[in-house]
Amino acid sequence: MRLLKAGLTAFVSASLLSSCLPAPQSFDPARLPDPADLSSRNAATEWYYVSGYLPESGLAFHWAQFKVNYKGLPYHAGHVAVADLRTGKLKFFENESQRARFGFPPLRVEQGDWRLVQEGNVYRLQAGPLNLTLTPLRGPVVHPPGYSGTPELGRMYYQSLTRLEVGGTVTLPGGETREARGLAWLDHQWGDQQPGREARWDWFGLHLSDGSDLMLYRVRDPAGKVVQVAASRVGTDGAAREVPGLTLTPGRVWRSPSGREYVLDWTVSAPDLKLTLEAVRDEQELLAKNTSVAYWEGPVRGQGTLEGQAITAEGMGEFVGGVLTRAEGGRFGPSGR
């Protein structure tokens, strides 16, 4: 999943001064990570991310944990969003605690009382309204070419667990606690990019009806120029393979209450793949004050053909809309959009 900062000096506290980090490691595209090594890294920007569209439960959710190395000082920010697809209500939570802990193996990602903890082959996610058990149905992968972004905009190494079985409960915006069942997607990315300000993207993590998983993204520069398009498909054998010759064609545009525009309908094309995707609902814009980034995060679905066979797709999309202004509550953004 993918956002972040632009000037964290105002958020450096006395407690942070005692926990300085060494200079972040440089990005080296020739040294890709081990897919199974999900440990936290010393990078300029890092995040862990879990999202799921659970149509049988009538909900969608996402959790993200960010760590930024700013001039040797760590800054942590967390997000959780829950959409009740039966009532149309959306709730967004932000975590600003600087009490954070990371460990591996087993994986442990904690910020305050939010945590993603590995217990054997199972991951427990407890964050605000989320009380979930995540069981991987296939192993971790590194998406070809191993990272997103460009040398000019910054690059992020890219690992995923693309298919996890979801159990547990989610507390919905109206207060109801609902059983959660379906599939989720876990991402881990780190590198030298400053997302939101210097890089924006359109991303999909999709579960296909043939049992494979499809990752799609476009990276854009601040002017909106597309500088990278990439895709990988994780087959039932667990291997991630590049999808060559991919095009992502924007369709319907939705204008949010903040005035930003997001493409919510897409056409995906590759030599053996034809797919149309649409947002399940429009009103999924999130204005994240603790990272000063506006983005659309929500459930998507689609249909088409893969290798000549009919398929359907369900999953999540994320489309970055830029930096928040100070009038919107952004802490690092410009005075005007």
TrEMBL record:
Signal sequence annotation: 1-23
Keywords on record: Signal
Gene3D superfamilies named among the record's database cross-references: AttH-like domain
Pfam families named among the record's database cross-references: CrtC, Lipocalin_9
The AttH domain, residue ranges: 45-192
PANTHER family per UniProt: BLL1000 PROTEIN, HYDROLASE
Protein name: AttH domain-containing protein
